[in-house]
């Protein structure tokens, strides 16, 4: 039974990695101008400084790598929230992350006159942390401390 489970997991991992590789190739090839796969391959292995190679190495590869890192980070964050609450359906809204971030950005715009998106980020981060802390402290009250059920409710 365990060898069957292991085979299934390895097969799933192989399919996931294959899908990621296809998505990476498509992400690098597709943009405002569709580039042929041979041009993409040349730009990655032996760039010659042409406009299409500069576009691939200067923007599309960075965009793709950033997308992979952000996606993996969001997946880990979701898994941590689900593990913390012991709820497979939990999301950041359960712990007050979304509400705290939204409130802080709204406050920054209304009170401090923040208008640029890059100025929103610190407020959103602090608001998310404070929102999560408030939910955690509220769940900590009473006997038994912060249980997953209290965090969820």
TrEMBL record:
InterPro entries: ABC_BtuC-like, ABC_transptr_permease_BtuC. Keywords: Cell membrane, Membrane, Transmembrane, Transmembrane helix, Transport. The keyword Transport applies. It comes from the Bacteria. Its main location: membrane. One of its GO terms (biological process) is siderophore-iron import into cell. It is found in: Cell membrane. It is a multi-pass membrane protein. One of its GO terms (cellular component) is plasma membrane. This is Iron chelate uptake ABC transporter family permease subunit.
């Amino acid at each position: 039974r365990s060898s069957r489970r292991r085979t299934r997991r390895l097969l799933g991992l192989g399919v996931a990695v294959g899908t990621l590789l296809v998505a990476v190739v498509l992400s690098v090839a597709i943009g405002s101008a569709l580039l042929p796969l041979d041009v993409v391959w040349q730009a990655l292995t032996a760039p010659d400084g042409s406009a299409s190679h500069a576009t691939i190495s200067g923007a599309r590869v960075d965009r793709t790598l950033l997308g992979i890192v952000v996606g993996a980070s969001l997946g880990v964050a979701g898994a941590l929230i689900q593990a913390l609450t012991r709820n497979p359906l939990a999301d950041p809204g359960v712990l007050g992350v979304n509400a705290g971030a939204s409130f802080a950005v709204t406050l920054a715009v209304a009170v401090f006159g923040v208008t640029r998106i890059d100025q929103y980020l610190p407020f959103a981060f602090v608001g998310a942390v404070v929102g999560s802390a408030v939910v955690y402290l509220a769940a900590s009250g009473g006997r038994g401390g912060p249980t997953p059920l209290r965090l969820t409710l």
